[in-house]
Amino acid sequence: MPHKFAIVIPDGAADEPIESLGGLTPLQAARTPEMDAIARSGILGRSRNVPDRFLPGSDVATLSLFGYDPEAVFTGRAPLEAAAAGVALGPEDWAVRCNLMTIRDGRLSDFTAGHITSEEGRVLMDALQQRLGRPEIEFHPGVSYRNLMIYRGAGRPSPFAEDTRTTPPHDQPDQPAADYLPRGTGSELLRDLIASGAEVVRDHPINRERLAHGKAPANAIWLWGQGMAPNLPLFQGLHGLKGAIISAVDLVRGVGILAGWDRIDVPGATGYLDTDYAAKGRYGVEALKDHDIVCVHVEAPDEASHEGRADAKVEALERMDREIVGPIRRAIETHGGRILVSPDHATLVRTKAHDRAWVPWAMAGLGLNGSGYPYDEVSALAAAGPLFDRGFELMNTFLKIE
Question: Of the N and C termini of the chain, which has fewer Cβ atoms inside 10 Å?
Answer without folding.
Answer: C
